[in-house]
Structure prediction request, 703 residues.
Amino acid sequence: MSFLTFRFSLLSSSVLACLAASAPALAGDGADPALLDVITVTGQRTSSPALDTVAPEFAPPAGADAAGLVARLPGAALIDNGSLSGQVQYRGLFGPRVAVRVDGQSFSSGGPNLMDPPLHYAPMPLISRIEVDRGVSPVRSGPGLAGGVNAVFKRIDFSDDQKLEPHYDVTAIGRSVDDSYSVGGVAGVSNDTFRFNALASYEKGESIEYPDGEIADTSHERLVYGGSLGFRQGAHEFGFDLRRQETDPTGNPPFAMDIRYFDTNFMRATYAADLGSVRFDAAFGYADVSHAMNNFDLRPAPADMTRYRETFAKAETFTGEAGLSFNFGDGVLRIGGDYEDANKNVRITNPNNANFFIESLPDVDMRRYGLFGEWNGQALGWNAELGVRADWHEAEAGAATLGSALPMGPQMLAMTFNAADRRWDATTVDAVVRLWRETEGPLTWRVTLARKTRAPGYVERFSWLPTEASAGLADGNTYVGDLNLKPEVAWIAEAGVDWRTDNFYARPTIFYRRIDDYIQGVPYDATPGVVDSMVEMVSSMNGDASPLRFANVDARLYGVDVDFGARLVGPLRADGVISYVRGERRDIDDNLYRIAPPRMNIGLTWEGDAWSATFESVLAAKQDKVSATNSEAVTDGFAVFNLFGDLTIADGVALSAGVENLFDERYEEHLAGYNRVMGSDVALGARLPGSGRGAFVRIRLSR
Prediction:
């Protein structure tokens, strides 16, 4: 990680903490002024010291996936399921356990295997910054076990002048390791009452090279276009965003199928008003995802025509939120509510046989209604964020239907599912206590206690047919759901300190999460491998005689992460991140699946007036704490080195370039999946390797 990335991450949190405590800015309390020049401060005071922020221009473009950018922060890692299908792992949690928003909007992904996790809809040329709630997310952001993530898009903001002025912010990127390119940005006009910008982005790349050849089926293509407008008058401000994304054929070698398309529409409307001593905020969103995936377009087609598969999925999400903020005691109280209504359907077909079709996840409707209260202020000499929320969940599924070409086994499973009570409801309660206190010296102490929850997803609850749909676990197992799953409940404790001097900084945090009713795949019955049930018979017909079922188990996650840096000599600086997390089952002697190994990034940066150069090392330890339940393979440790730099050519013109994997090291990331594509230079079933040596160049033009 470059010095700029670490510096941005550190000071986003430290400065926000100072603002919240009404303390002087860092530049005024003796901090190194060089540490301030990349901080993005929007001018709004925040009550939370726990926000990490990273921007694309301060990191090398390691692929098209924005999840890789988040992975550079303390405690974060990348679940690599394809060029555009990466998931964020944060302190051992990933997938739906991390509440991810795109430009402030929550929505349901369209793919049952999470080929379109939320950051799939955040192209790098359009991202202004990515914000990560450090540790846990506040209750106003909804339920979720881990810190929240928000990818903020570029936007032409209001100006201070009545005259309309044109603005633009455009980025172009090229990478040699996959012969990829991307170009995109925003352009528009604004004044003090009106703003408008168009946005567009297009990306295309071929298969990724690695030291032993080419990783087949890793090409990608994505187009995004839309617009954003706003109007403000007096105390009132309105905003409206409209966006269309078209993902064309894109490879997913850890899965049994590849993306054929995602056609997705987004709409979001916002309103805010300062009504004297009260502030009112509201937002309404809509997302519509249409998706197709198959096993014959990008990868070698099956020799048997009956094994052709194409799956069509649909997801439609309506969201709304509103809140009031006002002074209360020695702080500000915010009360509000939100809702989310997601409708989903998944249909499996064989394009060679019109009578082969299965509604594997039929007409699922999942609704959530929430109320919350959050207070930010000072209590007993500490700065505090105190919040509580309650959510009411409802879910139901329609009747499964099958074509006449399906054999008796799936027909019997469908009848059993249709005869069951497919409705579910529950209430969950979340609470967060976050405390921090600055000393007269260089230290800021931090403590967090929380109770966080997550309701089961539609795949975990309603999967009646054993398939590999698993919300992106990509472990090669087939899964069935459980209509009686309980919500997950995490009890969280964290403590840390921010230590700053003129020449040094460090932000260590130690954390512990005890999770009751953690949802995990377990053997379908007490005799795994013995085909003595209809589910196992159907699964065996699809090549897996030992299917798993989603079940409530008990788990724990604990560890430590820290980012740090020091001025060395003159303009030479060193910066680093260390992340360690351990995930275990509490009910049996096993490890949790797909947990990042201990990792350390260290960068040495020489910084001039208008340029900088960074030599970076990325070090990962061996991961042998693997899940026997998920048949997870051990991975060795590795060391990879990168070299990159940036140059300010002129006002509004910036150039970055570099070489990733400088010594062309062959290595395997533990969180990468296993190859499912025949004919690749990577062996079938082997862990997918990391990218080989490749150069990149990026130019940004802004005004």
